[in-house]
Design goal:
- The chain is mostly beta strands.
- The chain contains four helices and 26 strands.
- The chain is elongated.
């Protein structure tokens, strides 16, 4: 059952109303709705100061800046492992907005993602795909399996997953017919809204957030730390700086001027959103808010703080009073996550890994100048009979694509624990059923050739220590040699045996099978 069958249409279709509103918005300048937080430099005397000069963090000139840049006060330079996910997630199209599920699955948005693996979608013949769509990749046995579209929610407009609240609740951005604002115009005029999906067994119910959360303007990147709190980004007027609609070309990109807001629910009603203030928001774009579980650290992406050429950077802010939404310390620039492109879409998984989206050059000049929307908000791939309704959430460029990465602290050694590569008792050659997992492993390594890895083999607890040590090493060596045959550079891999997995009391056949495995680990 798709959304159109679940909700009644409440859209306002009068384009004149939006035109008048936009004309008024153009008159809006900077509107401060909070006091400047007190300087906190003295509170962090041991913090590393950030860059405040005109020298670009990403090696680019700041001569194209139109107004004051926010600047980075502190630099978080803690080193991190950054892993580009394999082709079960990333494709030749663009993937973004990663949202890990508690069961280990990964939900994300893919742009025009079709024709890959054993399924194919014809965009010209279906209204259940097109533009940004929601995909789900099962956790697999160490590496995610091939992603599949969530056809119940996808349409020929743009849909994006924002948050997996629980197995029963999901926060979405969509261009469904319930959206506020004109629905009979192309993407240059329409604006996406936020929705809450509730699952009750086989039944799905979709709640469209009313005003004042949604508006005639664009709402993006919802995040609910609690059921009565929602953080989101919006390009509505009245924020920090002048109005610039997301999706309209400004300062060489399509991010526009979006601010972060929070709305609180009281007595069953959502209150007027609070702008997080000029310490967090700038006259440029702030996106993808994520609040830590203790409510004290706010992660986001912005192209208004760091001294870059208006590229999105990942930052965080801190606060001591979790009841106050406009008093923050920061920004702290996460230097290890910076790239020459846009970095955004921060979400954490249960293991403390950080997912993000990153734009990358495609390496050629596309013949489809506007296929990712950089001729304005309108997105098209020029297929005959193909048209996408609504406005996308990402701000992609025709010369780039977006992929999904996962970052972990350098203290994290394991890349993947490959429970799907099964060995028979006292054998070092894996079972034939392990081939799909081996192929995904090779693909993952080939996407990350800048790093060296160790293939670590294990045995179950039966047999002598010396026998298990030799057996585990033979298993690791077989896997390493197979990976080299698939094209992985030999200098990138080493093999190591660690003997038996001990300490567990479970001696069932399944437990022993799980212990006969290999792990892929980073080499420092």
């Amino acid at each position: 059952m798709i959304l159109h069958e679940l909700c009644q249409m409440r859209s306002i279709k009068t384009p004149i109303l939006l035109i008048l509103t936009l004309l008024l918005a153009l008159r809006c300048g900077t509107h401060d709705n909070d006091n400047d937080p007190a300087s906190f430099a003295s509170k962090h005397n041991d913090a590393k100061p950030g860059r405040q000069s005109n020298e670009g963090i990403k090696g680019e000139s700041s001569s194209n800046y139109k107004s004051r840049r926010g600047g980075v006060l502190f630099v978080d330079s803690n080193p991190m492992h950054i892993l580009r996910l394999g082709h079960t997630i990333n494709t030749a199209q663009s993937e973004a907005h990663p949202c890990p599920h508690p069961d280990g699955s990964l939900l994300f948005a893919g742009m025009d993602r079709t024709g890959h693996f054993e399924y194919r979608i014809d965009f010209t013949q279906t209204r259940r795909m097109g533009g940004e769509d929601i995909f789900i990749a099962a956790p697999g046995r160490g590496i995610h399996e091939d992603a599949r579209p969530w056809l119940d929610l996808n349409t020929d407009a743009h849909e994006v997953i924002n948050q997996v609240i629980s197995d029963q609740q999901y926060l979405l951005m969509g261009n469904y017919s319930e959206n506020l604002g004109p629905a009979d115009k192309d993407a240059a005029y329409t604006s996406p809204d936020l929705f809450l999906l509730n699952r009750k067994g086989a039944t799905r119910q979709i709640f469209h957030f009313p005003e004042p959360v949604n508006s005639l303007y664009g709402e993006y990147d919802g995040y609910m730390p609690h059921s009565d709190v929602i953080l989101f980004a919006s390009d509505r007027p009245g924020g920090q700086g002048a109005y610039h609609k997301k999706g309209w070309l400004w300062n060489g990109n399509l991010w526009g001027n979006t601010d972060l807001y929070v709305s609180l629910k009281k007595d069953g009603l959502w209150m007027t959103p609070i702008n997080l203030g000029r310490m967090v928001n700038t006259p440029y774009a702030e996106r993808s808010p994520y609040l830590s579980t203790d409510g004290r650290t706010l992660y986001l992406a912005s192209n208004g703080h760091a001294d870059s050429s208006l590229r999105m950077e990942i930052l965080y802010f801190k606060r001591t009073d979790t009841t106050v939404w406009t008093q923050w310390d920061g920004p702290y620039w996460m230097q290890s996550l910076s790239s020459p492109g846009d970095d955004w879409g921060v979400r954490f998984d249960a293991e403390g890994g950080l997912y993000l989206a990153r734009s990358l050059p495609i390496g050629h000049r596309s013949s489809q100048a506007a296929h990712n929307g950089d001729a304005g908000a309108l997105e098209t791939n020029f297929r005959a009979g193909y048209k996408v309704r609504g406005a996308p959430s990402a701000a992609l460029r025709a010369g780039e694509q977006s992929d999904i990465f996962r970052a972990t602290a350098r203290t994290t050694a394991i890349v993947a624990s490959l429970n799907g590569i099964y060995f028979d008792t006292d054998r070092h050659i894996p079972q034939s059923t392990s081939l799909p997992d081996l192929e995904r492993l090779a693909d993952l390594i080939l996407q990350n050739t800048q790093q060296s890895y160790s293939v670590v083999g294990y045995a179950d607890a039966r047999g002598s220590n010396q026998h298990n040590l030799e057996l585990s090493k033979r298993r690791a060596e077989w896997i390493r040699n197979w990976l080299v045959e698939q094209g992985v550079p030999s200098k990138q891999l080493k093999a190591e045996g660690r003997g038996a997995v001990t300490g567990g009391k479970d001696r069932s056949a399944m437990a022993l099978q799980t212990n006969r495995r290999v792990d892929l680990m980073y080499i420092p």
